[in-house]
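Q: Can someone sanity-check these two? First one:
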Amino acid sequence: MTKYGQFCPVAKASEILAERWTPLILRELLCGSCRFSELERGLPRISRSLLTQRLRFLEGNGLVERRVVGASRAVEYHLTDAGRDLFDVIVRLGEWSHRWFDPLLDEDALDPQLLVWDIHRRLRVERLPERRVVVEFEFVGALPGRYWLILEPGAPSVCWDPPGFDVDLIVRADTLTLHRVWLGHQSLADAMKRGSIELDGSRDLVRGFPGWLALSQFAGTAGAYATPAG
């Protein structure tokens, strides 16, 4: 790990936080992920060995606590007080980036799996139907594929493979467009009007779907760059 050899608090913080992947691991922990598998879903491009190494580093520096829980002896990772105190730092970092840079200029930054994972943990659960609803996301254009949300009352989950239940609502979306909607660059209503996002299901689910989405944590941050409507 990098050592700057300076007494400056910025240097000391950078020794801990500025390593590759570390801010994103903290983002996932701050968003509620605590199992190794959950962290992997939120960080699909990190290797297991590097994730293990970074978690041990954060534990050694007092930001993360490793816990063994339940009869299954499952391992969970939880932030300490020092780690939770970084919430505003990580949010401000994201807001600064969203204000000055457009992450969607580079197609390599598109990630439908991460997008669906992010959507599932930003749902307004109080607005979801009081029954199980299966939502299929069908991405077209860049990085086509299908992923599923299982909306059980109080416990939404994600499936990368067909879940074995009948699909109640299909969200057919241009990949770039749904990323733009999620980040607040374009409204869902505008994308649906243009036909780049289509909803197929019963009338009550089609009407309810827009209200289920809380959008990205950073969707309300105004960007300094000009982004066309589509």
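And here is the second, same format, sequence then tokens:
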Amino acid sequence: MNWRIKPLEDILASAERKALRRSLGPFQLMMLGIGAVIGTGIFVLTAVGAERAGPGLMLSFLIAGVVCAFAALAYAELASMLPVAGSAYTYSYGVMGELIAWIVGWNLILEYAVAASAVAVGWSGYMNGLLTSWGVHVPAAFTAGYFDLKNGQLGAGAGVINLLAVGVVVVVCALLVRGTRESAAVNTALVFVKLVALGIFVAIALPNIDWDNFSPFMPFGFLSHEVYDPTLDAHVAKGVMAAAALIFFAYVGFDAVSTAAEETRNPNRNVPIGLVGSLVLCTLIYLFVAAGAVGTMPTDELKNSKEPLAEVLRNLGFQRIGDLIGVAAVLALPTVIMMMIFGQVRVFFAMSRDSLLPQRLSEVHPRFGTPWIMTILTGLLVMAVAGFFSVDEIAELSNTGTLLAFIAVSAGVLVLRMTQPDRPRPFRCPAVWVIAPLAVAGCLFLLLSVPPKSLVRFSIWNVIGLAVYFLYSRSRSPLAERPA
């Protein structure tokens, strides 16, 4: 069987022929990582996670963070060896072959584009709450998508299209077309807004913790299982692992740092710093914020909020500060959308450069130096998903693609250690024969904890992806077999 493995030297040579502009340093990379990670997972999904795990949500955050930390070390090794666009897709192409690379790249659409849609929906909840506090009422039909099942019935009062979510994607895409350096500058400024807001939340919430709210700590147990919810007239996943499989979404995006490797100065050193540094900082923040949220407000009350952190502060009597947290979320969540679309475009760019997607799509703007066609097309995809679906269902589907990518990268590090042990590695994953298998096992455990309906959608998505590969991409690949 011809696995069509693309030599690492060819990958690096291809990147040199059609390269992106290198303009990012280590601080900017870390800010990109934090900007991509801290968003809907903590600002919005805290409420849904609390509903599924109760106070055990803190353990859910910790489990998801540890799994991501193992995967981050694997990412850092491969990113230092292959500092080019494409992330897990490119690494898989050079280690496990074209078919595996295509599957990974196809699923990265779930990680980045679909994740961006989930963040846009989360942002719209905060924006709508802020507008309402100002006396501006957006019609309900335009604050939720048609396929949002929160009201129990498809299309019956749930909404028509989430215009607020669509609008923020338009603005973000315009900025990304304008330029990477400009986008990074805006991202850095808004990351500080986000960190200050979460710092204020922790400073107020932690001293007001009611320890009775932590008992029972795991009201639904540890493992994921389905429980009937009469308010939704449906079965929903419960348990610490069910919450971990959902709020794993809170960590999605740290690997977007690796997609920026081709636009980074001294990537062999700076990419590992950006990956590991941003993840460690975000994990600590999440644990403090989760403790403050579930410790100050009963989960039965917290679970119904679309702006849980602002709601917690209002419940404590800090109405004005709660509103300011809402303002901070409105300002800061677009940075996550920006980084998700940024990452997706770079994956598409690499696939197009490899001819698995039309090469015309990887055209770089002559003035701005950005892949503008791909950015616009990705934006349209994100708008379509954000406009019509609910945040939790989008997040669960996104997590399936992310987990598959993490598994591929962690396995790829081991394969490369065996097949090319002497290749220079500017960053080496410590205890790789322990860390990488733990990353694979952890990702598989989380994947099996995802609700069955999301796994069915994940399977359908991959069937479609394989059809696209065999009907279009395989024959256009430069690695296709030619007759003698």
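A (reply): Looked at the second one. The first strand starts at residue 225 and ends at 229. Confidence is low (pLDDT under 50) at residues 151-157.
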